Structures are given as structure tokens and as C-alpha cells.
Amino acid sequence: MYKKILVPLDGSELAEVSLPYAEEFSAEFGSEIILLYLSRTENNPYYNVRKIYMEKTVKATEDEVKKLSKKTDADAIKVSSAMLTGNVAEEIVKYADQEDVSLILMATHGQSGMKQWAMGSIATKVMSATKRPVILIRSRDAKPAIRNIGGIRKIVIPLDGSSESEQVIPHIAQLAATLKAEVVLFQAISLAYPTYTADAFAYVTYSDNQTDAMKASALDYLAKTGATLKEKGVKTSYEVRFGSAADEIINFSDEINADLVAMTTHGRSGLGRWLFGSTAARILKGGNSNLLIVRIQS
Length: 298
Known about the structure:
The protein is globular and about 65 Å long. Helix 11 links the parallel strand 11 and strand 12. It folds into two domains: 4-145, 3-Layer(aba) Sandwich (Rossmann fold), CATH 3.40.50.620; 154-295, 3-Layer(aba) Sandwich (Rossmann fold). The two termini are 21 Å apart. It has helices at residues 13-16, 19-29, 47-68, 88-99, 122-129, 146-149, 169-179, 208-225, 227-231, 245-255, 276-286; strands at 4-9, 32-39, 79-85, 103-107, 134-137, 154-158, 182-189, 192-196, 201-205, 236-242, 260-265, 290-295. By secondary structure, it is an alpha/beta fold. It contains eleven helices and twelve strands.
């Protein structure tokens, strides 16, 4: 599934929280791992120190993959490194294309916390610019290592009824089946609809009968859409909430302690649907779960 995983690093513990996830994926899928060290400036006086850091990190990652892997050819799994300077987000995207990676796996924060790889800055730029799947690992306090929290075992997939939003499902079907993760298909429905008159614009709240019918229809849609997951043997459930898409996704994911929210960017079908680019950005900024973003294929 993931033949080659790119893990951007900056030498900080905050950025390193992505490593255990890469190690588990490599152990499960036989993925090659590329550790990419990024610096904003050339002629870094600490270049040799960073080079030694990368060599040690490569060795530690190799050892952990071998320890986790159940494959007899675990020794053949490759872990390598590269060091680049320049605009961090641009270099990540360019290098991912150059190496044709299957996944970019990176932390939401890096060196100096909010001052460097700030949530809503580097992570959002990479998420928006790359055509590669991206997993963003929360790293506010440098503690969410996979060996401590048990890995990705509960995944929320938000859907808006569009075929674009459903494009993440085949990706998650394989990931969840391999990791033996549970999946919840989720839909948020607005509590009101816009109405226009000659003099004004307003929102009208749905009646109880209308919301009951909408919830039943949404649950039926989620059940039909989840058939692919069940065929793969993935434990699948469904949840419908009323309210703002981003807020409800964040609240529900927190309620069930989801390890991952998986969604596409820019899923839309009319003004009443979610704009997934902005929704993903709001979840990245305000949520607590890790975030997988898959770019829509036209």
C-alpha cells in the first residue's frame, strides 16, 4: 500500500512524533522510509551535527522496524535520509514528487513549537499543495508516540454525500484491514437551510419531522457506502450529527478518542455541501486527532 514513506524532520522531538507511525506502517506494509531533514537556511553551522543526528535516527528507525516487523525479509526494508534547505513546505512537496512517495507523514509542529512548523502554516501548505496522501500527526507536547497509545485503531471518515468525499474509502479500507482498525463513517447535517425573499436572506430551522427523515436517509447512505469496508472485514459503524461539519467532526472524534480522521480535500456538490479544503483546515487547527488527507482524483 505504502511503498515509500516520506517523513520530514527538523531535529526536534516535536517533529519526531511521526516516526513511530512510519515504523509501524513500514513493518506492516514493507514500506521504504525516507527521513528528510529540512533547514530554512544554507551554510548551517550545525550541518555536521545534523548529519550525525540523521545517521543515528536512520539506525534507530531501522532497528524499530525490524523489531516490529513480522515479515521474514524485514532486513530488506530500506531506511534512508536526505538533507535539504529552502522553503520548508515547498521542499517537502517537491521532494515527495521527485521520489514518487506513496505517503507524506509529518508532525503538525516542529522546532520552537508554534514558531517553526506551526499548525496552520507548514502542515496546511503541504496538505494543500501536494497530490500525495498526507498524514499529519499531532505534536503539541511531543508525547503521542504510537508505542504509547496503541497505534491507529479507530478511524473517522467524514462524508458529505458526494462521490468526491467517498474517494478516501478505498484508501482506508486497505489501511484499516491491515491495522485491524475500526472505522466510523460520519455525516454532519446543517440544522438550517438558507431562504431568500425580495427583502432579506435568512436561515430557516428544519422541523423535527424533517430532521428525523434526514437522519434516517443519512444513516442509510452511510450503510450503503460502508459496504466496501465490510467486504474487507473492517468493523464499521455509522454516526450522524446536526451542526457545523468541522465542529461536529472535531467533537465526535474527541468523544470516541479517534486516532485518525480521514478525508478528501475539496469534496463538494453544491452550496449546501461541505467545502472540504476549509473543513480540513479547521479540523487541523482545532481538532485533537491525527489527520489523513487524500487529494481528489478528477
